[in-house]
Amino acid sequence: MKKTILSLTLVTVLGTSANANPIKETKEVKTSESQVTWKGYKVGGSHEGTISLKSGALEFDGEKLVGGEFVVDMTSINTTDLEGDYKGQLDGHLKSDDFFGTANHPTAKLVFTKVKSTGKNSYDVTGDLTIKGTTEPVTFEVSVYGDKATASLKVDRTKYDVKYGSGIIGTAKDKLIYDEFDLVVDLQM
After folding, report:
1. Within its chain, how far is the Cα of 139 from the centroid?
2. Which of 14, 50, 160, 180 has the most Cβ atoms closer than 10 angstroms to its Cβ?
3. What is the pLDDT of residues 90-138, one digit of tens each?
4. Which stretches make up the Lipid/polyisoprenoid-binding YceI-like domain (predicted)?
């Protein structure tokens, strides 16, 4: 009888502790199947395009998102709403020191620092975003569905010394470029 009670106690304790500590897993992002789109705004219009992920991963504790880290290839910045010479000019300008200075800063990086569940598949995320060697915190929402994840965030470019055409440095009103740009991220794991 004592052996049976001891065996049942051990099974209960071991079973409970196994369930209390789900296995942590890192899921690598399939960079060729994932997409990052950007949209920047100016007085009288906007421009949009894509940028490639160099690497990325999301970390899970069981089914729960707990972390992530991504590296973006800034040299891949591409305008999709223009063609010909205008496209080439804007792509070149975005890569120049006026904007992202990709010759000296070929990558940008995002590291999750805090992840809070807000629902079954939804999370509020705070992360450290590094652009042009400057790191600033950003907050955004992430949704995870199986092997897919999506996120949308606004980035204030002036925090990363990207001030060309910004209203804060006295740009002529018809050349004003708004300080915030949007990123929409669709990840495949």
Report:
1. 10
2. 160
3. 999 999 999 999 999 999 999 999 999 999 899 999 999 999 999 999 9
4. 26-188
